[in-house]
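Write out this protein's structure.
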Amino acid sequence: RVPWIAPSHALGEGPIAYGKRHPFCSDAAGTRGRLHRFSLVPNSSTYPELTKAFTTIEYLPVEFSLDVSYPTKTTRTTQETALRYLRKQYQNNGSTNTTSPSSTHQRDRRAICVANTGIHDTILPNVTTNIYVHNVLNYWKLLLTTNNTHYRPACAHIIWVTTSATLNDERWLQRNDVIQEWNQALLNLFSPSSSTLTQTILTASFLRDHVTIVDVYDKSSHTQHVNNAHLDPDLYYRPFSVLFLNLTKQQLVKLLEDE
């Protein structure tokens, strides 16, 4: 049996609630992984090759910036487990074994990783901005770099979605002043004058090349919520899904035009 080691909240590790009381579980309900594979463009007279193009969108639950909910025999953190899975699922020991939409060229199967952690971290006791930033940087480093010559980095690029605003309901621990401070601290990492902490883990120039931040805080603060932390799906989550699907389609068209 895989050993489960309880999280150290002093290091900013989660889970803290249900997942801490029930090893190998998350704190939040409904955070099971999901996988969807579908055709991007069912019909296209301009680019008929696109009708053969499929994309995979997969959700992997990672609740905390340093999460230990799902260890394995060779990993302790959920981030490390996700990395191992991404390599196995999409890379096949570093070979580019996926064909292009036209089935004539080999493509790099590294994922474009859309990620966020933050809303759960805010309820951990005594987690400072520096601890949060340090954990996020190491999360990015894990996905974007590799010391293993048999594998490429798991993610070709990270799209980091900032933590959304809450209702600031006093019955809950998530507070907007903390969320805003943490979001801004991550944005500051991309400055040439970023802190020594950044330079020792990932340089600002590396981050600018490999991480894109989508800042959703203002949008979320003016969008209807269904509870303190979650927003109306039709007004918030579904429009973001459509945005990322359209970006994927645009990238496929660009690949075809470049051939």
